[in-house]
Structure prediction request, 313 residues.
Amino acid sequence: MTDYRTLIDTETWAFIEKTNSYYPPDTIDYTIAQQRAIYDRMSREFFAGYPQEVTAETTAVATPTGNVPIRIYRNAAPNKAAMVLYIHGGGFILGGLDSHDDVCAELCARTGYDVVSVDYRLAPEHLHPAAFDDAMNAFEWASKTYDCPVVLCGDSAGGNLCAAVAHATRGHEKKPVGQVLIYPGLGGDRTKGSYVTHAEAPMLTMRDLEFYKHVRTGGVDQAGDITQSPLADADFANLPPTVLITAQCDPLSSDGEAYRDRILAAGGHAYWFEEPGLVHGYLRARHMVGRARASFTRIVEAVSTLGKGEWAW
Prediction:
């Protein structure tokens, strides 16, 4: 049994307790509509505002399957070296432009890059591959609209979608210049590693993961589908330079390690860093937990470095 009392520090416990006060651990037992209301309320409670130099515009990308809402963040002193396509987490059923609004604004402030956040369609109303299709269409729009390289960045479910886009766009003339995946779920082996040692972690459990997977697919087994599970791909060559940042106390952490290993074995650039004592969803803790603050700086630096076409690991 993992002893979280020793692994997790006091600041992080305070964050977990604050989160649980708005978003109880049994939230997956509620209806989807109730879950979204609870998640949105929690997101508002943690909202940190915009840095002074950032403005945002909400618009939409026209796609063959309808409009995909996006929010474009711009810095008063822009860095045109790259732009960031940000894809939010939320188990494929929660979240949107507002849930990660301040994260995107701070990423824009600290890199200078334009950040475009994607409001992809959610399950169960829109089953897989709807979210993937929206992410792909947003990437195609970004690569045509911007004359600079595109860096993919996303957390949790958004990290999954970023990786799926990276795999699907390898042959494209303007493929992503890099990807930063924050505690992503990549379809790893659920019988070993962190899936076992952290099956009952605070903030995310195996029961949660099974629930989200079931809702995303409508209960259909799509284990070999690489647009859903990038780790199911047989070919890891020619992927963009990849930085994976995971939380130690998270069942998904082993996916970061496995994905790094596959890219390195195929001769690519990949770096995995497991944040000690942190939990899934710690991006929201970046203003109240020292470890999360340091990790967010790591994320910002990774996005900034990849955007310049550099590799520092």
User: Anything to note?
Assistant: The domain at 4-307 is CATH 3.40.50.1820 (Rossmann fold).
